[in-house]
Amino acid sequence: MADWVVRWRRLGPVLGRKRVEDIHRRTAAGIRAVIPTAELFRHLNVKLSPESGLVQQQAWFKKLRHG
């Protein structure tokens, strides 16, 4: 068996538990794990609002695509 498979089998559950812990603690890493779009918006200096949704997300993706 390849070395990377052995390492993944050993570390996969550990990383999974850490992800769940981060989510429950509501850390920045945990939030990014659940909502990767929030990290993208942070890089774009976009403020998230309660009204943010798919339409707004698609508008930003369109801006990214077309410069």
List keywords for this structure.
67 residues, mainly alpha
SSE order and pairing:
Blueprint: H1 3-25, H2 28-34, H3 36-43, H4 54-66
Helix pairs in contact: 1-2, 2-3
Low-confidence stretches: none
From the N-terminal CA to the C-terminal CA, the straight-line distance is 45 Å
**Average pLDDT number:** 77
Whole-number radius of gyration?
Answer: 17 Å
Provide a count of the helices: 4
What number of structural domains do the residues give? 2
Q: What portion of residues belong to β-strands?
A: under 5%
Overall form: elongated
Structural class: mainly alpha
Helix content: over 70%
Order of helices and strands: HHHH
Count of individual beta strands: 0
Largest sheet: none
Description:
By secondary structure, the chain is mainly alpha-helical. It folds into 2 domains: 1-34; 36-67, no CATH class. Helix content is 76%, strand content 0%. The chain contains 4 helices and no strands. The chain has helices at residues 3-25, 28-34, 36-43, 54-66. Helix 1 (3-25) packs across helix 2 (28-34) and helix 2 packs across helix 3. The longest helix has 23 residues, at 3-25. The N and C termini lie far apart (45 Å). The mean pLDDT is 77.
In short:
The chain is mainly alpha-helical and 67 residues long. The protein is built from four helices and no strands.
